[in-house]
Amino acid sequence: MRKKLARLQIKILVLVFWGLLLASCGQGQPPPDLFALPVTYMVGEKPEVVLARDMNNDEYPDLLVVNSASRSLTYLEGLGDGTFKDPQTIETGREPFALDVADFNGDQTPDIALCNYGDGNISIILGQKDGLFKLKTEVKVGRLPIAISAGDFNNDEKMDLAVTLRFNKMIILLGVGDGTFKVAEAYQAGPTPAHMTISDYNKDGNQDIAMALNAVKVRHLKVFLGNGDGTFKPPKKIIGGNQSSFIIQHDMNLDGHADLIASSPMKDSLSIYMGDGKGNFTKLEDFAGEKGPHNIVVGDFTGDKIPDIIVCNRRGGTISVIPGRGDGSFVYPHFNYVVGSQPRSIAGADFNRDGMMDIAVILYQKQILEVFLRKANAPLTDV
Q: Which of 135, 142, 156, 208 is the most buried (most CB within 10 A)?
């Protein structure tokens, strides 16, 4: 098995090398040599999402991969040098599809909340101080839960959950504080609510929810402003974008207000919405993506202290590094790196504690996790 895995790794490295070369030749200038060749790990069947979090409080980022076809969650413990221990497998429900991490039972150890798309429920997997996990409880939420985000929506210092259902609803689960939840409000969130991101967008001290909408011909996002008691105001429509699928928040123009970035895989485009700190957003002009842009990671990848984005291009077999200017706009042309067929999701963290952001990418059909470390001697501000 180890020999087969070694041969597979060598084959992948060769393919990546040639892919990088071809990608460089396809643009007017070669992309900067930002990343070392990847180290690969096997995960479960049809991996959907990868998430980077410190799960055992050792200050090293670990990796979690949701595997929809094998009804499992893969956990890779980080060693702090850019490598990971052999993967552990945690059983889940049918078709696990999304997850988030927070301390749900107040023991200062991260726990996992996971959507079981095929079962219509949420699994709460409690972390243990020895680095292991145990399945605590399941919460029924309704048909086809597709995305999940954790936040304290009623200001009781206990983590709550927001869950989107595939067709038209958002369900709020209020945390009891012991790892269990009470089903609270349900909100009409259609058409076709997708990924969510949580922050205090109007700076009233209450957490709010921004939501991508994946229905055909939908050209807006929704923002639910929190009341601070676990309920939300009727959603505000943020006009712009096309059939968005993924959304993330970050202060892209360094003005102290959270901005929104959304991807439209079917339209091959990305949209940015500049926040004013009062719950309002102004959409800038869409910028072109590659084939099937989906997951987005924000970080300083060019060494100029200005936020950049990396996008996972599901149909293109690439990731794109798009340098930011610090005002919400981006430098073009962006840089593409071939990672392999059907990259499904991407996560970013400093895996080797060198002060630079690294990335992890999962390949859907090949059941592979690739870890790309940022090169210490890579060109920085001349990108």
A: 208
In 52-63, which positions are buried (b, 16+ CB within 10 angstroms) versus exposed (e)?
bbebbeeebbbb
The better pLDDT of the pair 279, 15 is held by 279
> Which candidate, 50, 58, 78, places its Cα nearest to that of 129?
58
The whole-number pLDDT of residue 33 equals 87
pLDDT in tens, 139-184: 999 999 999 999 999 999 999 999 999 989 999 999 999 999 999 9
Say yes or no to pLDDT of 22 above 60: no
Complete DSSP assignment for 125-154: EEE-TTS-EEEEEEEE--S-EEEEEEE-SS
Question: How sure is the predictor about 83, in pLDDT bands with cuts at 50, 70 and 90?
Answer: very high
Question: Distances from the Cα of 202 to the Cαs of 208, 247, 275, in angstroms?
Answer: 8, 18, 9
Which stretch of DSSP H or E encloses residue 65?
A: strand 62-67
Q: What is the largest CA-CA distance in the chain?
A: 57
Distance between CA atoms of residues 328 and 297, nearest Å: 15
Helix (H/G/I), strand (E/B), else coil: 14: helix
Q: End-to-end distance of the chain based on CA atoms, in angstroms?
A: 41
Backbone phi and psi for residue 42, each to the nearest 5 degrees, phi listed first: -85, 140
The distance of Cα 211 from the centroid of its chain, to the nearest Å, equals 14
CA distance 271 to 88: 37
More confident of the two residues 283 and 289: 283
Question: pTM of the predicted model, to two decimals?
Answer: 0.90
Helix then strand then coil, in percent of the chain rounded to 5, is 5, 45, 50
